Automatic annotation (TrEMBL):
This is Arylsulfatase. InterPro entries: Alkaline_phosphatase_core_sf, Sulfatase, Sulfatase_CS, Sulfatase_N. Belongs to the sulfatase family. Residues 45-467 form the Sulfatase N-terminal domain. Keywords: Calcium, Hydrolase, Metal-binding. It comes from Gordonia tangerina.
C-alpha cells in the first residue's frame, strides 16, 4: 500500500500544521515525527551565579576583609577577581540588568519594585520583549533554577490572582524557591514562594534560618537533576536575602565575631585598604577616600564617639560579619556538592553583590528596622531607633541595621553608599571561577582591572557556554542587549575592556563613565534635579574619587554631560523627579486593595502589601464573627505582623487580650469577654500625628460594650506590619513572643467564623505631610 502524502490532506483537516512526518488514514501508512528538544553544546559548563544583597566592595577576604570567607577565597584562588566591576546603585535595577543584559531603565527598573509611577523607565515589571538569561539558557538545553530574593515583581502583584508574568517561573526558571520581596526576616520570613505558589507555613522550626533553607533547596535542585539526568548542564541563580537588613544571624555564627570590632570603623577601613593594595587590587600610591562628611551621609570619627556608642555600634558589625560568614558557608556547601558530583571544574561560578554597602541604618544604627525604614509621611519626632537590650542585637527578637560608619567601611576605599552613583554605591566585588574553561596561568594574579558593568554578565556567560540568543520572545522581536562580553578580558590580562562608556542614574543622582573618566553628581535639591553639580574624576589613577577635576577640565565635563543626556534619552531615564512624591506614586487601580474584605478563619496568611493597604495611615475596623462561643473557646482571633511590629487579638481564660507591638515596644491590655458574645470589634482611630487610638468592643444581643482601650499608639506604616494578616492563629513571625512561647500559634476553634476588615479614611496632618519629600528622598535605601 502506498504511503499517504502528508501534504495531501482532505479539506477541513485541522491540527497538522507544523507536523514534519507523514499522515495517512492509519498508522501503518503514516510516519511519526517528534520535534527536537533543545540540546546544550557538548561539554557545556554548569553556571552558578551567587548574588549577595547590599554587600560592599571590601566585605570578603579576597577584597580586603578580615571576615573569614575561605570558600569564596577558594574560588578567587582558582579564578579571577574583577577589581573594576560596576553595578547599579540599588537592587531591582541591578537584578534586571544582571538577568537581561539591558541597561536598567530600558529593562523598566529605574528604581526598586515598590511603586508604579507610570513611566517607561519605572515600569517595574519585565516587558514581554525582554529575554532573560534563564530563558536563553533553557532554549539552549540547560535546566534552570533560582533560589532567594527576586524583587522584580511590583509588590502589588505578589498576591494570589495577580499578574505573574514577571515572576521567576514565567521568566525562564524551571523551579523557584524564595522571597519575591526586597528583604525579609531571616528567622520568620513573611512569605516564601515555591514555583508559583505561596508556601502555606504557619510556624517555622525552632532552628530555622533562611540562608540555610535556601541553600538546602539549591542543593536539592542540583542533586535531583543529577539523579534524573547525569549530563544536562544547569544554571543556578542563587540570590541571597543577606546582606539586606534587618540583620539577624544564628548565635553560633555570631559567637565567632564577638569582640572583634572594638577598634572601630576607621581602623577597619585602614586595614582593609592596606590588604587591597597587598592583593594587587590597587597600586600602592592609590589614595583612599576620606570619611564621608557631607550632611546626611557623614560618618564621625570612631574615637569621637561615646564609649556607650562604641559598645553598641561594634555589636552591629559583629552581626554583619557573622552574616557574611554565613553566606560563605552557603557557598561552601554548594561548592562541596559540585565537587562530590565531579562537576566543580566544569562549572562557571560567579560571586558578586547587587550594589554597595548601605547607609540605611542612619547615623546611629537601629534596633527597630521597620521604624527606621518608613519612607512615607511621619512626624518630626518619629522614633527610628527604639531602644532595646543590646544583647539582643542580631537575634530574632530585633530587626537591626548598622550605623552608616560601617557602611563606609564596607565600601572601602570608596565614597558614599548604596543609592548614590559614586563608587561606594556602584563598585562591588566580583569573583569568577571556571577551572576547565578559564584556567589561570601560574604567573597570573587573577586580578582584572579593566572596566566592566553588570549588563556584561549575560553576554559573557553565553559566550563562555557557547549558547546562542533567540531573536524573538513569545513571537515578538527581542530587545537588543546593552552589555558586551568580557570573556577576552578574563582570558588575557592585557586585553582592552570592550565596555568603554556607561551611564548611571538613580533618584536624581547621575554618573557617566568613558575611557577612564567619570562624571558624577550628588542629588540634593528636588527643584534642581535637572541642574546637576557635576564632579569629574580620573578613575584610572583615582578610583576612590578623591580629587575633583571639574574646574580644570570644563570641556571634558561638557562632553560627558552631553553624553549622559543622550544616553538618558536612549535608555528611558527621563523624566527625572522634581517632586519626590511622584516617584512613590501608585497606579489608580491599586485603590481597590483597600476595599473591605471578609476573611474566613483558617485562610492562608494574607500577603503583606495587601494587608497594609487595609490599615496604613487610616481608621480601620476589624469585626470578628463568633458562633456559639463559650468560655472554653480560646485562641487567636486575628494577628497582623511579627516581632518587628504588629497587633494581635486573642481570647484566653474568657478574657480578650489586645497586644500592640510598636516596632518592639509591646503593650498588652485585657478585658473580660461577656457570656453569649457573638462578635468582637477592634476599632483603630487614626490621628493626624500618625498614631492610633484602639478600642475592643464585645457584642452581645446586638449591644456593643467597650472592654479594652489603648490610646495614642504609634502607627505601623511603611513596610510594617511585615507579616500579613492571619485569622484564627498567629502565623509565621509572632507578634507576641511570650504568647508564642506559651501557646504556639494558638489556633482558635470552630467558634470563630470569619473576620472582616473595614478600612476608613486616611488621616495625616499638615505637619506630617511636610515631611513627605524628605521621606521620599530616603527611598534610595
Amino acid at each position: 500500500m502506498a504511503q499517504a502524502d502528508r501534504t495531501d490532506l482532505p479539506a477541513g483537516a485541522r491540527g497538522y500544521d507544523g507536523f514534519d512526518g507523514v499522515i495517512g488514514r492509519t498508522s501503518s501508512v503514516s510516519r511519526p515525527w517528534w520535534p527536537e528538544e533543545p540540546t546544550a553544546p557538548a561539554g557545556a559548563p554548569n553556571i552558578v551565579v551567587i548574588l549577595v544583597d547590599d554587600m560592599g566592595y571590601s566585605d570578603i577576604s579576597p577584597f580586603g576583609a578580615e571576615i573569614d570567607t575561605p570558600n569564596i577565597d577558594r574560588l578567587a584562588r582558582n579564578g579571577f577577581r574583577l577589581s573594576n566591576y560596576h553595578t547599579t546603585p540599588v537592587c531591582s535595577p541591578a537584578r534586571a540588568a544582571l538577568l537581561t543584559g539591558l541597561n536598567p531603565h530600558r529593562a523598566g527598573y529605574g528604581s526598586v519594585a515598590n511603586s508604579d509611577p507610570g513611566f517607561p523607565g519605572l515600569r517595574l515589571e519585565l516587558a514581554d520583549d525582554v529575554l532573560t538569561l534563564p530563558e536563553i539558557l533553557r532554549a539552549g538545553g540547560y535546566a534552570t533554577y533560582a533560589v532567594g530574593k527576586w524583587h522584580l515583581v511590583r509588590d502589588a502583584n505578589m498576591g494570589p490572582g495577580r499578574d505573574r508574568s514577571s515572576w521567576p517561573v514565567q521568566r525562564g526558571f524551571d523551579s523557584y524557591y524564595g522571597s519575591l520581596e526586597g528583604l525579609n526576616s531571616f528567622f520568620y520570613p513573611n512569605q516564601l514562594i515555591a514555583d508559583n505558589t505561596v508556601v502555606d507555613v504557619a510556624e517555622y522550626p525552632d532552628d530555622y534560618y533562611v540562608t540555610d533553607d535556601l541553600t538546602d533547596r539549591a542543593i536539592s535542585q542540583i542533586t535531583a537533576l543529577r539523579a534524573q539526568d547525569p549530563t544536562k548542564p544547569f544554571f543556578l541563580y542563587f540570590a541571597h536575602i543577606a546582606m539586606h537588613g534587618p540583620h539577624q544571624v544564628k548565635e553560633a555564627d555570631l559567637a565567632k565575631y564577638r569582640g572583634r570590632y572594638g577598634q572601630g570603623w576607621d581602623e577597619v577601613r585602614r586595614q582593609r585598604f592596606q590588604r587591597q593594595i597587598e592583593n594587587g587590587l590597587f597600586d600602592p600610591d592609590t589614595p583612599m577616600a576620606e570619611r564621608n562628611t557631607e550632611p546626611g551621609f557623614d560618618a564621625p570619627l570612631w574615637d569621637d564617639l561615646e564609649p556607650t556608642e562604641q559598645e553598641r555600634f561594634q555589636r552591629y558589625q559583629e552581626v554583619y560579619a557573622a552574616m557574611v560568614d554565613s553566606v560563605d558557608q552557603s557557598v561552601g556547601r554548594v561548592v562541596d556538592t559540585l565537587e562530590q558530583l565531579g562537576e566543580l571544574d566544569n562549572t562557571i561560578i560567579v560571586f558578586t553583590s547587587d550594589n554597595g554597602g548601605t547607609a540605611e541604618g542612619g547615623p546611629v544604627g537601629t534596633r527597630s528596622y521597620f521604624s527606621q525604614f518608613v519612607h512615607g509621611p511621619v512626624p518630626p519626632d518619629w522614633e527610628r531607633d527604639v531602644p532595646h537590650d543590646q544583647d539582643l542585637i542580631g537575634s530574632a527578637a530585633l530587626g537591626v541595621h548598622y550605623p552608616r560608619g560601617w557602611g563606609q567601611a564596607s565600601n572601602t576605599p570608596f565614597r558614599f553608599y548604596k543609592g548614590q552613583t559614586f563608587a561606594g554605591g556602584v563598585r562591588v566585588p566580583f569573583v569568577v571561577s571556571w577551572p576547565n574553561g578559564l584556567p589561570r596561568a601560574a604567573d597570573d594574579t587573577g586580578v582584572r582591572r579593566q572596566f566592566s558593568y553588570v549588563t556584561d554578565l549575560v553576554p559573557t556567560l553565553l559566550e563562555l557556554a557557547g549558547v546562542d540568543t533567540p531573536d524573538h520572545r513569545h513571537g515578538r522581536p527581542a530587545q537588543e542587549r546593552d552589555g558586551v562580553s568580557i570573556a577576552d578580558v578574563l582570558r588575557d590580562r592585557d586585553a582592552q575592556s570592550p565596555h568603554t562608556e556607561q551611564y548611571a542614574e538613580f533618584g536624581g543622582h547621575r554618573g557617566y563613565y568613558r575611557d577612564g573618566w567619570k562624571l558624577v553628581s550628588l542629588h540634593r535639591d528636588p527643584a534642581s534635579v535637572d541642574d546637576p553639580a557635576w564632579e569629574l574624576y580620573d578613575v584610572t589613577t583615582d578610583p576612590a574619587e578623591t580629587t575633583d577635576l571639574a574646574a580644570r577640565h570644563p570641556d571634558k565635563v561638557a562632553e560627558l554631560a552631553a553624553a549622559w543626556d543622550a544616553a538618558a534619552w536612549r535608555n528611558t531615564v527621563f523624566p527625572l523627579y522634581d517632586r519626590p512624591a511622584d516617584q512613590l506614586r501608585r497606579r489608580p487601580a491599586e485603590a481597590r486593595l483597600s476595599d473591605p474584605i471578609r476573611i474566613l478563619a483558617g485562610t492562608p496568611t494574607l500577603e503583606r502589601y495587601r494587608s497594609s493597604r487595609l490599615i496604613a495611615y487610616r481608621d480601620f475596623v476589624v469585626e470578628a464573627e463568633l458562633e456559639g462561643w463559650t468560655a472554653d473557646d480560646e485562641g487567636v482571633i486575628v494577628a497582623h505582623g511579627d516581632q518587628q511590629g504588629g497587633y494581635l487579638l486573642y481570647v484566653e481564660s474568657a478574657a480578650v487580650h489586645l497586644v500592640y507591638n510598636a516596632y518592639g515596644r509591646v503593650r498588652r491590655e485585657s478585658g473580660r469577654l461577656p457570656d453569649g458574645a457573638t462578635a468582637l470589634c477592634l476599632r483603630a482611630s487614626a490621628t493626624p500625628s500618625v498614631r492610633w487610638n484602639l478600642t475592643v468592643e464585645a457584642v452581645c444581643d446586638g449591644e456593643a460594650s467597650t472592654i479594652v482601650k489603648l490610646d495614642d499608639q504609634v502607627q505601623l506604616v511603611g513596610m510594617a506590619p511585615w507579616t500579613g494578616i492571619s485569622v484564627g492563629l498567629d502565623a509565621r513571625g509572632p507578634v507576641d513572643p511570650e504568647l508564642r512561647q506559651r501557646r504556639g500559634v494558638f489556633r482558635f476553634g470552630p467558634a470563630l467564623r470569619a473576620v472582616t476588615y473595614r478600612p476608613g479614611p486616611t488621616r495625616v496632618g499638615v505637619d506630617v505631610r511636610r515631611g513627605l519629600d524628605e521621606a521620599a528622598e530616603r527611598s534610595a535605601d
